[in-house]
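Figure 6 in text form: structure in, sequence out.
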């Protein structure tokens, strides 16, 4: 009887020890080589990407990439996964083409920088079973994961990075017996900076010309009220039209862009020229030509000074 009790106690002890041992999750390494990024649509927060991707898992693991999901993308074309066992690892590779979504912040537009993400998860296997990491055999300089000749129109490449974390879903996905919803997530990020020169020509230069057109009213005789007024109104309407045409290419956001602040500044300055024209005309009608000339001379300086100081303030506060 006693040997049986001892055997039972030994079994209980070994079972308790075994249940306390938690298996380490399998590390799956992910590598990428981005061939092309195009059709970056800031208004729709989308971009097109074409890249090779590979997954490395220990040959002893039962994991396969069949349930891989691109969490922020719609895959338009994908080649078959090709398995090539190398040095004790299973390596799967394929080529992916599709459209991906980003969360673009436009506070500094048109001098903004953006991050284009490609986010990967396993749809079935949770983080206690697998963990994603960047490919250890690839270069730690993630810029080498990009095709050197890749060019994104209107943008300049400013770097790349990879990160992995655990994403927690606050839901059981309708399965009441599900214990947790933590999934390992791998994110590749491409950083872009908007080119300055195209927007200098399309945005800044026209606005400077419009402001310069309004500036000419300070050199016209105060008695020519109709001419001065027509120039100021035309300049103001031109600035509004330019602002609207630019806004049509951008998403509706709940905050002011840097470009909006610049346009508001130009509205105020051009409107001040219109107000000064009205005041000068009243002085001219009362034969106070000395005051009209004095105001014209002062506004030639104040107008330019206010524009320069206002733009510096907008840049510093944005």
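Output sequence:
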């Amino acid at each position: 009887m006693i040997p049986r009790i001892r055997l039972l106690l030994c079994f209980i002890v070994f079972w308790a020890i075994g249940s306390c041992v938690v298996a380490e999750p399998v590390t799956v390494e992910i590598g990428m080589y981005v061939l092309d990024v195009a059709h970056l649509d800031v208004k729709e927060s989308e971009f097109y990407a074409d890249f090779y991707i590979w997954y490395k898992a220990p040959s002893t693991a039962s994991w396969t990439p069949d349930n891989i999901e691109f969490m922020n993308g719609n895959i338009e074309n994908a080649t078959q996964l090709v398995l090539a066992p190398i040095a004790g690892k299973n390596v799967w590779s394929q080529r992916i083409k599709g459209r991906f979504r980003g969360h673009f912040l436009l506070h500094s537009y048109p001098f903004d920088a953006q991050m284009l993400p490609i986010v990967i998860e396993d749809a079935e296997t949770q983080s206690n079973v697998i963990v994603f990491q960047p490919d250890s055999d690839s270069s730690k300089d993630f810029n080498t994961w990009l095709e050197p000749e890749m060019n994104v129109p209107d943008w300049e490449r400013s770097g790349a990075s990879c990160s992995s974390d655990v994403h927690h879903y606050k839901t059981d996905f309708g399965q009441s017996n599900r214990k947790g919803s933590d999934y390992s997530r791998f994110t590749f990020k491409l950083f872009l900076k908007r080119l300055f020169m195209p927007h200098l020509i399309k945005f800044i230069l026209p606005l400077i010309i419009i402001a310069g057109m309004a500036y000419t009213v300070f050199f016209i005789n105060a008695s020519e009220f109709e001419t001065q007024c027509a120039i100021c109104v035309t300049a103001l309407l031109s600035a509004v039209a330019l602002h609207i045409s630019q806004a049509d290419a951008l998403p509706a956001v709940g905050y002011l862009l840097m470009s909006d602040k610049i346009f508001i500044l130009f509205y105020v300055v051009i409107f001040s020229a219109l107000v000064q024209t009205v005041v000068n005309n009243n002085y001219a009608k009362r034969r106070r030509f000395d005051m009209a000339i004095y105001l014209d001379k002062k506004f030639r300086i104040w107008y330019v000074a206010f524009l320069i100081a206002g733009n510096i303030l907008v840049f510093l506060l944005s």
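Caption detail: Strands lie at 26-41, 46-58, 68-70, 73-78, 82-83, 89-101, 113-122, 130-134, 155-168, 182-194.
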